């Protein structure tokens, strides 16, 4: 029974759907192929018959407008609707033209602002590039100065070390020669020379006269003077190195001041350029605000319509 009831419900639902589809098809056929205006008697009951009927007067040259018909009077303006429509169309065209002009002006202003931004960005990039080059130049100068000072210090230390080593070697050699030789042996005959009594062997001779002592003292004095001269030369070389370092530091300071002056001049030129661009932009904006579209109808325009109507 449940199965039968379900089948019956499905058949009833299908019948309702078929009836609905049939009614819909009939309605669509009537709407498409049986319209009221296709009937023979539609002209008798057409609600738009008066609107479809020909007007009593079409124009001033209508042959139906006779004198006795009272359809045409002097001073009437049959083109009033067309003229008003034409004026509205012309006003709309003027409004659209003004909108297009305003959009073009806005586009030109945006293009000028973009160009100004690009120029400003270019100037900023050039300033950053100059600043980067300045920093690199300063770093290179500092590195060169540091390398030069390090080289000078290394050479000075190496020279001092070599001098000290040479002096120590000379002292050791002198002490060794004194200890191993016969100079301290107290034997006066060891200084006797085979070439005569007036000659002695210098490395064995123990005594000397006053003149010989004076000669030795004179030689020692000369050695002292030579040592003082060498010390004075060393001092002068040190002073020259100090002077060169001071000159290098002074040149570095002058170079930094020159770079700062160039940066100030570049910044001043950039500010002047920005000020000029801003003034030009303001002038162009004022010019765009003062420009007004003034194409209004003239007396000749109305005279032409009056002549046409007559």
From TrEMBL:
Residues 30-62 are annotated as: Disordered. Its main location: cytoplasm. Residues 36-62 have a biased composition (Basic and acidic residues). One of its GO terms (biological process) is flagellated sperm motility. Residues 263-290 form a coiled coil. It is found in: Cytoplasm, Cytoskeleton, Flagellum axoneme. InterPro entries: RIB43A. Pfam families: RIB43A. One of its GO terms (cellular component) is sperm flagellum. Keywords: Cell projection, Cilium, Coiled coil, Cytoplasm, Cytoskeleton, Flagellum. Belongs to the RIB43A family. Microtubule inner protein component of sperm flagellar doublet microtubules. This is RIB43A domain with coiled-coils 2. It comes from Chelonoidis abingdonii. The gene is RIBC2.
């Amino acid at each position: 029974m449940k199965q039968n009831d379900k089948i019956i419900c499905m058949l009833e639902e299908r019948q309702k759907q078929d009836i609905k589809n049939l009614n819909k098809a009939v309605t669509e056929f009537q709407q498409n192929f049986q319209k009221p205006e296709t009937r023979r008697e539609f002209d008798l009951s057409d609600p738009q018959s008066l609107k479809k009927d020909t007007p009593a007067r079409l124009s001033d040259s209508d042959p139906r407008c006779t004198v006795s018909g009272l359809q045409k009077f002097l001073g009437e303006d049959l083109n009033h609707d067309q003229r008003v429509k034409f004026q509205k169309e012309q006003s709309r065209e003027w409004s659209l033209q003004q909108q297009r002009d305003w959009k073009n002006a806005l586009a030109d202003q945006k293009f000028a602002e973009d160009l100004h931004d690009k120029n400003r960005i270019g100037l900023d990039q050039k300033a950053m590039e100059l600043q980067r080059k300045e920093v690199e130049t300063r770093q290179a100068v500092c590195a060169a100065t540091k390398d030069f000072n390090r080289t000078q210090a290394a050479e000075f230390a190496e020279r001092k070390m070599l001098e000290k080593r040479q002096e120590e070697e000379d002292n050791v050699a002198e002490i060794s020669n004194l200890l191993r030789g016969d100079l301290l042996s107290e034997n006066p005959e060891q200084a006797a020379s085979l070439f005569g009594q007036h000659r002695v062997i210098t490395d064995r001779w123990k005594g000397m006269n006053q003149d010989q002592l004076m000669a030795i003292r004179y030689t020692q004095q000369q050695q002292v003077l030579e040592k003082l001269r060498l010390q004075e030369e060393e001092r002068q070389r040190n002073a020259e190195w100090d002077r060169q370092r001071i000159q290098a530091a002074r040149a570095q300071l002058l170079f930094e001041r020159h770079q700062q002056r160039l940066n100030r001049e570049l910044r001043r030129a950039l500010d002047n350029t920005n000020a000029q661009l801003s003034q030009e932009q303001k002038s162009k904006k004022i010019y765009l605000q003062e420009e007004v579209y003034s194409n209004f109808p003239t007396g000749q325009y109305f005279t032409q319509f009056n002549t046409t109507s007559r």
